[in-house]
Amino acid sequence: GAVVSQHPSWVICKSGTSVKIECRSLDFQATTMFWYRQFPKQSLMLMATSNEGSKATYEQGVEKDKFLINHASLTLSTLTVTSAHPEDSSFYICSARDQLAGGYNEQFFGPGTRLTVL
Amino acid sequence: SQQGEEDPQALSIQEGENATMNCSYKTSINNLQWYRQNSGRGLVHLILIRSNEREKHSGRLRVTLDTSKKSSSLLITASRAADTASYFCATGLNQAGTALIFGKGTTLSVSS
Is the alpha carbon torsion for A22, B35, B65, B48 positive or negative? Predict the structure, then answer.
C-alpha cells in the first residue's frame, strides 16, 4: 500500500517548451501533495504544497507562474514547468500525504522525474 | 527552506565498519525521519523516530534523537557495499499536514 507514482520518469525537452509532470497516489487519497526539486549532489528543496481543490502554496523564491501546480483530484497533482530553460533541469520529486494518516507527517514519495532542458 | 545540517557531508569506510551520520535541526519537531537515496534514484524510507522517543532500532540501523540538542544520529552497523548511497534526515513539524524538510545529506561510500 501507499504507493505514489510519477510520470514521466524522465523527459528531455527544448528550451522554451512546457513540460507537465504527474504525481498520483495509487491506493490512497491525498488531500495534500508536495513538490520537491533536487539539483545534482544536493538535497531536496520543497517547492510547493498542493492542496486538493485549492491553490498551491509556494515556497519563497519559487515562481508560481513558472511552476504551475494543479491538484484537481484526491489522487492526482500535476506540476507544469512553463517555458523551461536549462537551469530548470533537475530531479523533481513529489510526495503525498494519506488523508487518513494520524497526526504525524507521514509522506509517501514518488520515484522522481528527471527533467533535462536542452 | 532547509531545516538541518548533516555531518559529515561525505564518509568513506570499509565493509564491515560502522558508519555514523549526524543531523541537526532548528525548530521544534513532531518526528524525524531518515531516508536513503541511491545515485539518481528515488528515496527509500529507513526509519521514523518521534519527538518523545530517544532511540530506535531497525535491523542494522540505530537512530537516536536528542530534542534538547536538536540533533539525531544514524548508525549503520557492519556496513556493506550496498549501503553506498546518500542519507538524508527529514523533520516533520508539529503542524499537521506540513511538508517534511530535508537536511543537506551525507554521502556514504562503502568499499569492499
Answer: positive
pLDDT digits (tens, 9 = 90+) for A24-82: 999 888 889 999 999 998 999 999 999 888 889 999 999 999 999 999 899 999 999 99
User: Which residue matches cell numbers 525548530?
Assistant: B27
User: Chain B: nearest CA to A104, how far in angstroms?
Assistant: 6
pLDDT of B4 higher than 90? no
Residues 6+ apart with CB under 8 A from A40: none
Nearest Cα of chain B lies from the Cα of A63 at a distance, in angstroms, of 15
- List Cα–Cα distances, B46 to A25, A32, B43, B67, B86, in angstroms: 20, 22, 9, 20, 12
Q: Name chain B contacts of A97, Cβ cutoff 8 Å.
A: 97
